[in-house]
Amino acid sequence: MKYLIVLSLSLLISGCTQNNGQIGDLFGLWILAEKYPTNHTEINNQDSRLFIAFQGEIVCLKNIVAPHSYKECFGKYKLSCDSITFEFLEGDLSIINDFNFNKKETFGINTSKKKLTLSKEQCYWNFSKY
């Protein structure tokens, strides 16, 4: 019994954190809410199937293409004060076209706990925390 208590406590203490517990505002899954001026329209969240996820230094783009099918690609990102640079390396790289991204690209970034905005020239991508 003591062994189980010690094991449980050690699992709780070592838990699911990263970067010494500093997860930050980017951590997690984000759904694309709108992009413009590419299509000039807001995307209905129920219809949107484009997601971006962050964990550690890894970024994942995902497009749900059917109820049980999806495309995704992975890469790494580097964050500075007001910009983020993506480099996509693995997976279905055709998905970067769904987002109108390039394989390696730098964006302006603005984040809060619930909103993420990427910008480049006159284009904006607004994501909501999912």
Treating each run of at least 4 consecutive H or I residues as one helix, how many helices? 2
Q: How does the major sheet shape up?
A: 8 strands, antiparallel, barrel
| Mean of all residue-level pLDDT scores | 80
* Low-pLDDT segments: 6-15, 17-21
Structural class: mainly beta
Q: Estimate what percentage of residues fall within beta strands.
A: over 45%
Order of helices and strands: HEEEEEEHEEE
* Neighbour order of strands in the largest sheet: 1-3-4-5-6-7-8-9
Overall body shape:
globular
Strand element count: 9
Cα Rg: 17 Å
What share of residues is helical?
10-25%
| N-to-C CA distance | 39 Å
What's the SSE blueprint?
Layout: H1 2-14, E1 28-36, E2 41-42, E3 50-55, E4 58-66, E5 69-79, E6 83-91, H2 95-98, E7 104-111, E8 115-120, E9 123-129
Key terms:
eight-stranded antiparallel beta barrel, 130 residues, mainly beta, 9 strands
